[in-house]
């Protein structure tokens, strides 16, 4: 390659080049949820609100990858809003009031760069790696559907929640970035979430009883509404 960095390690050749985007840690912060009334759905005639534990964080990034570590409750990122320019706000639901850790990774060429340690530049002189910004380290990608795919049609199920499945990675601590959250509104609000214990991430899905209305276990929805996914990230050394 014409620019970049290569090193031979005990696990093979490590290459940092200008053609593969590198992401470094930009924000690591603990935030705590509190009970808040937020809009969950509705239309032109009315909007449906519900009070649940919510936590938010506003940060600066160009192309953020947002991950979270939730050791004491289930959590899901329910919104990532661009406020204009490089300002973003991420909003999280937690099953109970709790503190979670948030990790924001951004493309390394957006960093100002440090004055010490290893730095790597591409052929145009852009910073693509900096030893002071720990790399985003993906360990696995998990995806599925709450009910199992049955095609692009409406589905109706009687279903009981919660339901859980866990994955362990080769790390002392893993967080989850959830590119796709499963959510639907029927007689219940349906939402998936993640909890963490060291190197184990557990995925679950839940029925949140709508306030002030009757509920049962039935849901009619497009299959795609209850798709979910999660990127498991090693955050042991952050």
Written overview of the protein:
With 238 residues, the chain is mainly β. 0% of the residues lie in helices and 61% in strands. It has strands at residues 5-9, 12-16, 23-32, 34-42, 47-60, 65-69, 75-84, 87-94, 99-107, 119-121, 127-130, 138-145, 154-158, 163-168, 174-180, 183-185, 188-197, 200-209, 218-222, 227-234. The chain has a 4-stranded antiparallel beta sheet with strand order 4-5-8-7, with no helix packed on it. Strands 14-18-17-16 form a 4-stranded antiparallel beta sheet, with no helix packed on it. It is elongated, with a radius of gyration of 20 Å. The protein starts with a strand and ends with a strand. The model has no long low-confidence stretch (mean pLDDT 83).
Flag low-confidence runs.
none
Helix share, percent: under 10%
The largest sheet has its strands arranged as 4-5-8-7
Provide the residue-averaged pLDDT: 83
**Please, what is the oligomeric state?**
single chain
> What share of the residues does DSSP label as strand, in percent?
over 45%
């Amino acid at each position: 390659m014409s620019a970049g960095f290569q090193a031979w390690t005990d696990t093979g050749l490590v290459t940092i080049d200008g053609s593969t985007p590198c992401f470094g840690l930009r924000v690591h912060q603990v935030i705590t949820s509190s009970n808040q009334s937020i809009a969950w759905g509705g239309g032109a005639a009315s909007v449906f609100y519900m009070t649940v534990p919510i936590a938010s964080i506003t940060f600066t990034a160009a192309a953020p990858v947002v991950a979270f570590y939730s050791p004491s409750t289930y959590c899901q990122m329910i919104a990532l809003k661009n406020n204009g320019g490089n300002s973003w706000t991420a909003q999280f639901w937690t099953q109970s009031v709790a503190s979670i850790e948030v990790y924001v990774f951004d493309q390394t060429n957006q960093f100002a760069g440090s004055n010490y340690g290893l730095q790597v530049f591409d052929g145009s002189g852009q910073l693509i790696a900096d030893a002071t910004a720990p790399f985003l380290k993906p360990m696995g990608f998990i995806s599925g559907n709450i009910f199992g795919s049955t095609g692009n049609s409406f589905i109706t199920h009687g279903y009981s929640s919660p339901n859980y499945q866990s994955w362990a990675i080769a790390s002392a601590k893993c967080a989850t970035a959830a590119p796709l959250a499963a959510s639907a509104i029927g007689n219940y609000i349906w939402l998936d979430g993640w909890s963490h214990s060291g190197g184990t991430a557990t995925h679950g899905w839940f029925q949140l009883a709508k306030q002030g209305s009757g509920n049962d276990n039935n849901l009619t929805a497009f299959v795609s509404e209850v798709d979910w996914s999660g990127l498991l990230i090693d955050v042991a050394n952050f």
